[in-house]
Amino acid sequence: MVIGQLINDHKLYTKWNEEFDCPEYDEDMVVDFLENEMGTGGCVVDFHTSGFFPERWFDIVVLLRTNNTTLYDRLKERGYAEKKITENIECEILEVTSEEVYTSYKPELIMELQSDLPEQVESNLNQIIERLVEWKQKRQAE
After folding, report:
1. Average of pLDDT values for 93-116?
2. Which element (helix H / strand E) includes 130?
3. For 57, how many CA atoms within 13 A lie in the half-sphere containing its CB?
4. Do 15 and 24 touch, CB atoms closer than 8 A?
5. Is residue 65 scored above 90 in pLDDT?
6. Are 110 and 98 in contact (CB under 8 A)?
7. pLDDT digits (tens, 9 = 90+) for 36-56
C-alpha cells in the first residue's frame, strides 16, 4: 500500500500545505483507515515515515537508505520543488527517518538496506524474501 496515494485518494488529511504542495495528513485518520486491512496481514506498506504505525502491524520494517546525490536526482526527476528536495536531503543527513524507525520498532524487526543503484533492487528484494522465509519458518516451529 502506497500510503501517500491513499492519503490523497481518501482525503486522510486535515489541510493542504501550500509551501510544500502536499497534504498534512492526520495520523489517526490514516491508522483508522488502515486498521481492518492491516489486521488481515500480508500487507506491504510504503511511506516516508513510520513512527505512528502500531508495531503490531509489522513482522519486518525495511529502512531503505540512499546517498544524497542519488536522492536529489530522484526527487528532481519526480518534479519536487527545490525547497521540498532540500528538506528531504536534510532529513536524510540528520537521519530523521532512521531515528524514527529505531525508536519506534524492536531492533529484530528492522532491516536497513542501501538503495543507490538499480541493481541493488534485486539484491534488496532477495534479502527481504530471505528474512520473510526465516520469519515464517520460525513461526511455524513455535
Report:
1. 96
2. helix 118-141
3. 17
4. yes
5. yes
6. no
7. 999 888 899 999 899 999 999
**Most distant CA pair in the chain, distance:** 52
The label of the residue with cell 520498532 reads 105
CA distance 2 to 95: 22
Taking alpha carbons only, the member of 54, 63, 64, 9 closest to residue 27 is 54
Contact by Cβ (8 Å): 71, 92 = yes
C-alpha cell at 117: 543503484
The amino acid occupying position 56 is: R
Print the SS3 string covering 22-77.
EEEECHHHHHHHHHHHHHHCCCCCECCCCCCCCHHHCCCEEEEECCHHHHHHHHHH
